[in-house]
Design goal:
This protein is mainly alpha-helical. It has 31 helices and 5 strands. It has a 5-stranded parallel beta sheet, with helices on both faces. Keywords: ATP-binding, Kinase, Nucleotide biosynthesis, Nucleotide-binding, Transferase.
């Protein structure tokens, strides 16, 4: 029996497929999982997987990408899967050729007539007996991935596919659902948002055992939630918090992640419930917050999660007196995190601390020079580069990425010379370093790579109110949610027009892009209109819940 688990990144298919494999073994079956614990059993296939993930290869065309994904699965099929089917009761695959099909057709827009012959050649008639589509809201899947990466202290570069932006995951989800609808006898859609993991595993195992006995499979599709309109912002906040409460026991990390940036007594009560189990995620969620409650949480969590507490010293919190006290307490114990927390600061106090940290945390010190174009900043960059071998060090990806971080927003001739050298090993980092730049060189680079790395390119437009920026935003708005992130807080006609045009495509991002404007009458009206049309959009509920806090803070900030 051949079973395939499919779904977007972060859907939970790897966790579920591994648990199902273990339970089937306990039931007395011989089971071969061809991607046990997330690693493909074929070294050749695993190598191809790493190649397609590497952002160095962002220039891959859709056809080349299809052939590489198909080759990965073809190798796994011939080397591992087909032999295993002859020797085991059950063979489980975490992804199959459906992944290549969905990415090519729905993600990249290749015609089915071009994709199908490639996949048929690789498949050679083999069909899974059951396909479990692990279905989840892309916003929730993204939160799971980010929380997992933060807890694992994974500082690796984003995947090449990730450079496309959040919109890709929405298109892939729609593609998987279309394949499932076309073959309902083979596919089952498993909603993996609010069902406890143990219950989900039990249902899947029972389904497999029934099919092996020749019985009809279980009806596993979720019933869906009734459509109940949201009539006010406080009601949206209550609905959001109830969803979080449902995750507090079975998936506390997800609940903690979604508390990020939130304030209010109801939120503080939930932070208190989660702080002991998820201190790193709760600390991470304090980023930029400056309320007395936020500073109290930093003091309470610094012993358990010092690096994450220091990482929360961003925006208005970065130069507060309490921030400096925190840095001084951890300067010798967590020098890298302290150095990173100095990013963009140009005060004498910041420079004195960098001088003290330059030996114990040289790379984070250099990375903290983001946006600084002074001679003092360049002397620090040159000193570190010389210690790594001078110009030859640009061949080291880690060096190139650190230098690109330090060059964000810097438009001098020296910065461009370094970008040109870094492009060969860290092109995505170079694109991110263009943040806020409005020079001909910056626009030429954006236009050259926008089609392959729209997320990185669009992210560099933050705050730019020039014709070229609006042209790019309009070009990629329907496909790339990050277009709206790039105009956060902008109160110009072009920004409002894009929010209106893209509101139903990216409802939560439209509200998030309001920034403090969410507390205005116009901002609240847009939020309520979208809640009426998209009452089940969890990310939208979260943004609406944040708006409640902003409205309450309106007199303090003077929002009109």
């Amino acid at each position: 029996m051949f079973i395939v688990f499919e779904g977007i990144d972060g859907s939970g298919k790897t966790t579920l497929s591994n648990r199902v494999a273990r339970e089937l073994r306990r039931a007395g079956l011989t089971v071969r999982h061809v991607r046990e614990d997330g690693r493909l059993a074929s070294p050749v296939s695993e190598g191809l997987r790493r190649f397609t993930r590497d952002p160095l290869h962002l220039a891959l065309t859709p056809v080349a990408e299809l052939l590489l994904y198909a080759a990965r699965e073809a190798q796994l099929l011939e080397e591992v899967t087909r032999p295993a089917l002859a020797e085991h009761d059950v063979v489980i695959a975490d992804r199959f050729l459906y992944t290549a099909e969905v990415l090519a057709r729905f993600g990249r827009g290749l015609p089915e007539a071009e994709v199908r012959p490639v996949l048929d050649t690789c498949q050679r008639g083999l069909q899974p007996d059951r396909v479990f589509l692990i279905d989840v809201d892309p916003a929730i899947a993204r939160a799971r991935r980010r929380a997992s990466k933060l807890l694992a202290k994974d500082r690796s570069a984003p995947s090449r596919k990730g450079l496309t932006g959040a919109g890709l995951q929405a298109r892939l989800r729609a593609g998987y659902r279309a394949l499932a609808a076309a073959s309902p006898g083979r596919w089952s859609i498993i909603e993996n948002t609010d069902v406890p993991l143990d219950e989900q595993v039990t249902r899947l195992v029972e389904d497999v055992l029934r099919v092996r006995r020749g019985e009809a499979p279980l009806h596993l599709a979720g019933q869906g939630r009734p459509i109940v309109p949201v009539r006010s912002l406080p009601e949206a906040r209550g609905r959001f918090l109830r969803r979080l409460d449902g995750w507090t026991v079975d998936e506390p990390g997800l609940a903690a992640w979604f508390l990020a940036g939130m304030e209010g007594q109801d939120v503080e009560a939930r932070r208190a419930l989660l702080a002991e189990r998820c201190p790193e995620l709760i600390a991470h969620g304090l980023a930029g917050l400056t309320s007395p409650a936020a500073w109290e949480w930093r003091h309470r969590l610094e012993a358990a999660a010092p690096e994450h507490v220091l990482a929360s010293l961003t925006d208005d919190a970065s130069d507060a007196p309490e921030a400096w006290h925190l840095r001084e307490r951890w300067e010798t114990r967590a020098p890298e995190a302290v150095a990173t927390s100095l990013t963009g600061l140009d005060s004498e106090r910041a420079w004195l601390m960098r001088d003290r940290l330059s030996r114990s945390a040289p790379e984070p010190v250099v990375g903290s020079l983001s946006g600084l174009d002074s001679e003092r900043a360049w002397n620090e960059r040159w000193r570190w580069l010389s210690s790594r071998g001078g110009d030859a060090a640009f061949e080291d990806e880690g060096v190139a990425r650190a230098l690109c971080r330090s060059l964000r927003g810097v438009d001098s001739e020296r910065a461009w010379e370094w970008r040109e050298r870094a492009m060969a090993v860290a092109p995505d980092a170079v694109l991110r370093s263009l943040e806020g730049l409005d020079s001909p060189r910056a626009w030429a680079l954006r236009e050259q790579h926008a089609a392959r790395a729209p997320k990185a390119v669009i992210g560099s437009l933050t705050g730019l109110d020039v014709p070229a920026a609006w042209t790019l935003r309009e070009t990629f708005g329907v496909a790339c949610e990050e277009v709206l992130d790039s105009l956060t807080g902008m109160d110009v006609p072009a920004a409002w027009r894009l929010r209106t045009v893209l509101a139903d495509t990216w409802p939560s991002a439209s509200v998030k892009s309001l920034g403090l404007l969410a507390a205005t009458a116009r901002g609240q009206a847009l939020t309520l209109e979208l809640l009426e049309r998209h009452p089940h959009d969890f990310a939208l509920l979260r943004q609406a819940a944040r708006t409640v806090s902003q409205v309450e803070e309106e007199p303090r900030h003077g929002v009109a």
